[in-house]
Automatic annotation (TrEMBL):
The modification 4-aspartylphosphate is found at residue 56. This is LuxR family two component transcriptional regulator. GO terms for biological process: phosphorelay signal transduction system; regulation of DNA-templated transcription. The keyword Cytoplasm does not apply. It comes from the Bacteria. Residues 6-121 form the Response regulatory domain. The keyword Transcription applies. GO terms for molecular function: DNA binding. Keywords: DNA-binding, Phosphoprotein, Transcription, Transcription regulation. InterPro entries: CheY-like_superfamily, NreC/VraR/RcsB-like_REC, Sig_transdc_resp-reg_C-effctor, Sig_transdc_resp-reg_receiver, Tscrpt_reg_LuxR_C, WalR-like. Gene3D superfamilies: 3.40.50.2300. It comes from Tahibacter aquaticus. The lineage of its organism: Bacteria, Pseudomonadati, Pseudomonadota, Gammaproteobacteria, Lysobacterales.
Amino acid sequence: MTMPQRALVVDDLAGSRAWLGRALDLAFPGIEVQQASNLAEGLGLIDPPPPLALIDLGLPDGSGVQLIEALRAKSAQTLCIVATVFDDDAHLFPALRAGAEGYVLKDQSHEALAEMLRGIAAGQPPLSPSIARRLLRHFQPLPQPAPIAAAEVLTARETDVLRLIAKGLTLAEAAGLLDLSRHTVAGYLKAIYRKLSVNSRAEAALEATRRGLVNY
C-alpha cells in the first residue's frame, strides 16, 4: 500500500479521536483526517471510501463492525484498522471476519501507534503485540493429552466399579449389581484411588472423566 493521503477516524470519544489523529499525522505527515463520533456519521463519510480508516468498535449507535462491512462492500482497497480497548476473542474475530486488516489497542502512546501505522507501506498489518499473540494461540493446534501410563489404566472391572460409584451408588449397591462382595468392591476402589492418584470418590470420577476412562 502507498502512503495514504486521506483517513477516516471513527470514535465516540473526542480524546480518542485526537489521539488517533496525532498518530496518523505523525505516521503520514500532511494526511487529511476526517472524523466521526458515531456509526451514522462514519457511514456518511465513506463515499468516496477513504484509503485508511481507524474505527472504534463500541459506538453509541451501533458497532464499528458494521462500518467495516460497509467500507469493504464499497472498496476492497480501504484498509480498515480497529482501534479499541477490547482485547477479547468476542470482539477481535468478528472484526477480522468483517474485513479488518489491523487491530490496535488504546493502551499505548500515539508514537507507538504511528510506528505500527508506518509498517502499512511495507505490508505489515498493524497489530498490538497482545493481539498478535492471541491470534497465534488461536491457530496453534491444541495440545494432545499426555498418554496414560500402563499402571494408571483401569481394568474392565475397575471401570465398572468406578462407573457405579460415580453415579452415587454405595459399595454395597455396587457389589450387588456386579455380583461381588462388598469387600471385593472396596479393594477395586482402593486400586482405582491408587492408579488415579486421588483420595475420594468425587475426585476419582472427575479424574477418570478427564482422562476419558469412563463415559457416562
